[in-house]
Design a protein that fits this description.
Layout lengths: L4 E6 L3 H16 L3 E2 L8 E6 L4 H20 L4 E6 H6 L1 H6 L5 E3 L7 H9 L4 E3 L20 E5 L1 E2 L10 H4 L4 E2 L2 H13 L4 E5 L7 E2 L2 E2 H11 L4 E5 L8 H9 L6 E3 L7 H6 L6 H14 L4 E8 L6 H14 L3 E6 L17 H24 L5 E9 L6 E6 L4 E5 L9 E9 L3 E8 L5 H5 L3
Bound molecules: 5'-deoxyadenosine and iron/sulfur cluster (SF4).
Length: 449
């Protein structure tokens, strides 16, 4: 019996959130308890992100807090998991003297062993990457809820020149389709209403001849009332078959996260993105014609080495042409070990900030216009609970992942699908009136207004 309490904080992408659930599954099997109260913790773990410098800086800041805590609680074990563990390895233990455990993304099975080592005064270090580990047989620990992440593959083989992920998460590998489908079934039986299939590049999923379209279709078949989302798609591997699969399955959300990164072919080449803007736009146009009402989101990097103002204007141009629903927008951040790190980071900080601001402002305007155009339409919303701002209102999400807010009423239950007529919109939120409170059948669910 093991009475120790573990407290975990997660930083970074959704993949890390999914990994934290795997870690909690492993630790619970070993008898550890998970606590949400830092004061009760015997072990504190940080699941970390290295994708940009400021992510790492935040985590260093947090480690500073734990250093103080440790001076009043000397037996506290502090561990670093995830991408920073992989990237910085022993440095974390040697430099930041408060760290006792350092475990990279492919060694979580041995985490209990490493924590035991720390309890006996040794350092627990596991940073080997694996070509095969997918944690297929581990049941992630999830509290009951409506929405779940499922990691369907690990690692990345794309080697975009700015990106540290292939080094911190290793080579690409897919989980077995059957075990993913079983996990989806389990979640559906527990009352979950939405799953998001996760991978750095889901379009290159491959399990003994089953591609990502096969996986999506198999997941969609489990329960027509369960929404299926997925992220992230790389333009190079996005097939027509996938577009037809999305179009053919009512419960696969008509929403594609398709990072463009830059609008300039010269920069895309330097980034090793392996597509041109013309090719990218062809995919967007094809998706729009095959999937009526499809929406897109993207990732954009401002200020990659040698990016001229003209290159930057091309990025704005693509954003205007595609009209993304939303975007994750970043300043370029040099990461040691990547190919781009060897290029000079020659765009001045002020220019990066100026370009990023222009990108953000444009996206905000486009999101606002897209949402304004929804006024008067009827949207199917999965009810999530009370709105953040007022208990008089509830909120949920549309198929295209927009937050919709509507007045509360007793007949509206969390986890049900309702129809909302939109009467007001900002760039981030839709507001409306409920016009139907229960949509029991698949047919009703997706009937368009
Ligand atoms: N600098 C800035 N943004 C980056 N991203 C990845 N690496 C970097 C970097 N070095 C962004 C990309 C990617 C998203 C997850 O993070 O846009 O799609
Ligand atoms: Fe990084 Fe490119 Fe892989 Fe995405 S596809 S994780 S940006 S290397």
């Amino acid at each position: 019996m093991n009475n120790n309490n573990i407290y975990i904080e997660t930083y970074g992408c959704q993949m890390n959130l999914a990994d934290t659930e795997i870690v909690m599954g492993i630790l619970k099997n070993y008898g550890y308890q998970i606590t949400k109260e830092l004061e009760l913790a015997d072990v504190v773990l940080l699941n970390t992100c290295s994708v940009r410098e400021n992510a790492e800086q935040r985590i260093y800041g947090r480690l500073g807090n734990f250093k103080k805590l440790k001076s009043s609680k000397p037996n506290l074990i502090v561990g670093i998991l995830g991408c920073m563990a992989e990237r910085l390895k022993k440095d974390l233990i040697e430099e930041k003297k408060i760290v006792d455990v350092v475990v990279g993304p492919d060694e979580y099975r041995r985490l209990p062993e490493f924590i035991d080592m720390a309890f006996t005064g040794d350092k627990g270090i596991g940073v080997k990457l694996s070509r095969t580990e997918t944690y297929d047989d581990i049941t992630p620990y999830r509290e009951d809820g409506l929405q779940a992440w499922i990691s369907v593959m690990r690692g990345c083989d794309k080697f975009c020149t700015y990106c540290v992920v292939p080094f911190t998460r290793g080579r690409e590998r897919s989980r077995a389709i059957n075990s993913i489908v079983e996990e989806v079934k389990g979640l559906s039986q527990r009352g979950f209403r939405e799953v998001t299939l996760l991978g750095q590049n889901v379009n290159s999923y491959n399990d003994s001849g089953n591609d990502f379209s096969d996986l999506l279709a198999a997941c969609a078949d489990v329960d027509p009332m369960l929404r299926i989302r997925f992220t992230t798609s790389h333009p190079q591997d996005l097939s027509d078959k996938l577009l037809y699969t999305i179009a053919a399955n009512q419960n696969i959300c008509k929403y594609i996260h398709l990072p463009v990164q830059s609008g300039s072919n010269r920069i895309l080449k330097l980034m090793n993105r392996t597509y041109t803007i013309e090719h990218y736009m062809e995919i967007i146009d094809k998706a729009k014609s095959i999937i009526p009402g499809v929406s897109f989101s993207t990732d954009v990097i401002a200020g990659f080495p040698t990016e001229t103002y003209e290159d930057h204007l091309m990025t704005l141009e693509v954003m205007r042409n595609v009209r993304y629903d939303g975007a994750y927008m970043f300043k370029y951040s040099p990461r040691e070990g990547t190919k781009a790190f060897k290029m000079e980071d020659d765009i001045a900080e002020e220019s990066k900030i100026k370009r990023l601001t222009e990108i953000i402002d444009l996206q905000q305007r486009i999101s606002y216009e897209i949402n304004q155009a929804l006024i008067g339409t009827e949207e199917t919303v999965l009810v999530e609970g009370f709105s953040k701002k007022s208990e008089k209102f509830m909120s949920g999400r549309t198929d295209s992942n927009k937050v919709a807010v509507f007045p509360c009423s007793e007949s509206i239950k969390e986890g049900s699908y309702i129809k909302v007529k939109i009467n007001r919109a900002t760039s981030g939120t839709l507001f409306g009136d409920v016009i139907s409170t229960s949509l029991p059948s698949e047919k009703d669910l997706y009937k368009t207004a």
